[in-house]
Structures are given as structure tokens and as C-alpha cells.
Write a structure and sequence with these properties.
alpha/beta, Nucleotidyltransferase, domain 5, DNA polymerase, domain 1, 3 domains, six-stranded mixed β-sheet, 6 strands, 10% strand
């Protein structure tokens, strides 16, 4: 493998001319996010052909590359793409039309849902990656030879692994299903991230309607403040502290700290938290939105989950897809809430879209037919 450091505008222009015509490129990023809300890009790796290019955003502007990446007509290969997507977007870039997450592909083939790159590379190439620069300072310059070697290794084997995995997925007849999931993964959902708390925070279901309003407003405040100040969520208040504040109520500075806020954060932002609590307390009872129930409160949840589980087991048995990629707890809860009329009408549960629909819609319909006949679905 050849390795080239790109830290000058002329070299970047020549590199763009080379990679744009290739059918596949491997992508990874190195960044810093310990003290900020937005990740700070330290290095951007691209495997193009037989060469790993290490793009240095401190050496030259990557604006021409972002434009070329957006227009790239081949397939970009990632491994565990979530943070890479965020880095690209916050750095001013846009994803190409075709992207694949090899960690997801590895899970689809039954190797586990959160396995690392080293496991995948060893499985499909026999090579053992040396992961010795994980805690490296990627913002310091110049980049060391060890850092450059490490960064290059993270993209060197992506195409080889994908070629093997793609062949297996195709032989199983599930390649198009996997690519469909990739399109969903790499397309912004446009959903309000705060509204997802009904799935992420199980304790939220035990709150009163007023407390749920307080919780939502605190989460919105944390989100907006962290973005505005470019600081981590935890510097304001961790999610555990947010819930404790909502559950305990009657906040003052001492109670905020006892609920889990750091003293400095309580001094700087505690007045805002108390103001939000006071505003919520003044909302007339008649103007409060309906309390958001848990999926556990839906009478036929157990029957529906059992039917969905049976359908998922059949998919796993027949096609060998890793079960966590077929169905998740969040997917189940989303569908249960939809059958109970507790989701917005324009929000279609994932289990009733795409390739999953042919398996899970019949299972759902059978249970709901029994419910409509007067039973609990059992």
C-alpha cells in the first residue's frame, strides 16, 4: 500500500482528479470531540486504488474535496459510519449518493452488532490491525509517522472486506435489502432528535404530563445551549441528571447539584433550569398535551411483540441475517405505539416500510384483527 499525505492545495487537486473515477473509495476520519459539541476534524483518510491518502485540514482547505465528494459517482465505504457522517457534515461536506457501512454488513452476516474494524479485517483478510494510536492527539502538528500509518490502515482493507461481504450477501439474496438499509442510514431522517426520548428514556413513561413537558423543554434547552456554545452535553447536565431534576422538582442550586449537575454548571445554567420549571408549572392543566404513554401500557403489546418476534426469527432462520439488524426494541415500540394511535399520522414505523414490510405487516395485522374482535390479541 502506498501512503500520501495531502497538505497542499496542488496535491489536493491532483488527488481529486484520481479518485473521482474510481468505483469504490474507503473513508475514515480522525477527530477531537472531548471538549466540544461539534467534532473537530484532525485527518480525513481516503483509500483510492492502491493508495491511502491522508488529507490534512490544517494544511489546506478541503472545500474542493467536499465538492468532489458530494459529486462522487461510485460507492463510499465506511466502517461504523455514524461519527464519520457527523464529522463530514459539520466540516462542510456532503455525502455521495452511494454509501455503505461495513460494520452494518458485518452484523448482517451474523458476526455481532458492534464488532470493530480489526475483527472484520481479520475475518475477511487474515490481517491483524495494530490499534496503537486510538488516543492520539490528531490536532497536533506535524502528524507523526505512526499516526499516518495508523490512519492509513483504517481504510486499507475496506474494499477487500466489502468485496467478500457483498458476494455473501448476494448469494443469500439479501444484498438489495442491505443496501436499502444503508440508504436509510445515510439519509438524514429530518425527525426532531429530542422527540426520540420516548424510546431512549424508559423512565420518561412514568412521568406525569406536566413532567414530560418539563423533560422535553430541558432536553431542548440542553441541545440548543450545547450547540450555541459548542460544548458537550455532559458539561451542562447528563441525561441521568435531567431525569432526576424532572422527577424531583422544586429545584434550587443545592437540589440541582444533588440531582447530578456539576456545581459549576449549576452556577452558570441553574437559573435557566429553574426558570423553565417555573414556566412549565404555570401552564394551565387544560393546555397540557396528553401524557405520552409507554408501549408497555398498550394492552396488546405482549401479543404483538410475540408475533413480531416470530416473524423476525423466521427471517433470521431463512436468510441468516443478524437478528439485531432485522428488528430492535425501538422498532417494536414504534409499531406498538402506532397501532395504539400514539404516533403522528405521517410517521410510518420502520417495520412497515421497505423490505421489512412483507414480513411484519401480516404479523401485525393478524394481532390487530383479534384486537378489533374484542380480545387483547392473545
Amino acid at each position: 500500500m502506498n501512503v500520501e499525505l495531502i497538505d497542499r492545495a496542488d496535491d489536493l487537486r491532483k488527488f481529486i482528479e484520481k479518485f473521482s473515477a474510481l468505483p469504490f473509495i474507503g473513508i475514515d476520519t480522525e477527530f477531537e470531540k472531548l471538549r466540544t459539541f461539534y467534532p473537530i476534524l484532525g485527518a480525513f483518510q481516503v483509500m483510492a486504488g492502491d493508495t491511502a491518502y491522508i488529507l490534512d485540514p490544517k494544511g489546506c482547505s478541503l472545500a474542493p474535496f467536499w465538492k468532489a465528494l458530494s459529486a462522487y459517482g461510485g460507492t463510499a465505504l465506511f466502517f461504523a459510519a455514524e461519527e464519520d457522517i457527523q464529522v463530514i457534515e459539520t466540516s462542510g461536506g456532503t455525502l455521495p449518493a452511494s454509501c455503505v457501512d461495513l460494520q452494518a454488513a458485518y452484523a448482517w452476516l451474523g458476526y455481532g452488532n458492534s464488532k470493530g474494524l480489526a475483527d472484520c479485517v481479520k475475518t475477511f483478510t487474515g490481517v491483524e490491525l495494530l490499534k496503537d494510536q486510538t488516543m492520539s492527539d490528531w490536532l497536533r502538528r506535524p502528524l507523526t509517522d505512526d499516526q499516518i500509518r495508523y490512519a492509513a490502515a483504517d481504510v486499507e482493507y475496506l474494499e477487500a472486506c466489502w468485496n467478500s461481504m457483498r458476494k455473501i450477501l448476494e448469494e443469500k439474496g439479501i444484498l438489495e435489502w442491505f443496501l436499502e438499509d444503508c440508504r436509510l442510514q445515510f439519509t438524514p431522517s429530518g425527525r426532531d432528535p429530542v422527540s426520540s426520548y420516548e424510546f431512549e428514556l424508559e423512565a420518561a413513561h412514568c412521568l406525569t404530563a406536566r413532567q414530560q413537558v418539563f423533560l422535553r423543554r430541558l432536553l431542548e434547552y440542553r441541545q440548543n445551549t450545547a450547540e450555541r456554545l459548542d460544548i458537550p452535553f455532559a458539561w451542562l447536565m447528563k441525561t441521568k441528571a435531567v431525569l432526576k431534576i424532572v422527577q424531583d422538582g422544586r429545584m434550587n442550586m443545592r437540589r440541582l447539584v444533588r440531582a447530578g449537575m456539576r456545581e459549576r454548571a449549576a452556577r452558570e445554567y441553574g437559573s435557566d433550569v429553574m426558570r423553565i420549571e417555573k414556566e412549565v408549572s404555570r401552564i394551565p392543566e387544560a393546555e397540557l398535551p396528553a401524557r405520552q404513554p409507554s408501549a408497555d401500557e398498550v394492552q396488546w403489546k405482549a401479543s404483538l411483540n410475540a408475533a413480531l418476534g416470530s416473524a423476525a426469527d423466521e427471517i433470521v432462520r431463512k436468510y441468516g441475517i443478524g437478528r439485531q439488524r432485522v428488528i430492535t426494541k425501538d422498532m417494536e415500540h414504534e409499531l406498538v405505539l402506532r397501532t395504539a394511535g400514539l404516533l403522528p399520522a405521517d410517521r410510518t414505523p420502520l417495520l412497515l416500510t421497505g423490505w421489512r414490510r412483507q414480513f411484519f405487516e401480516p404479523a401485525c395485522n393478524k394481532v390487530m384483527e383479534r384486537v378489533q374482535k374484542g380480545g387483547s390479541g392473545a
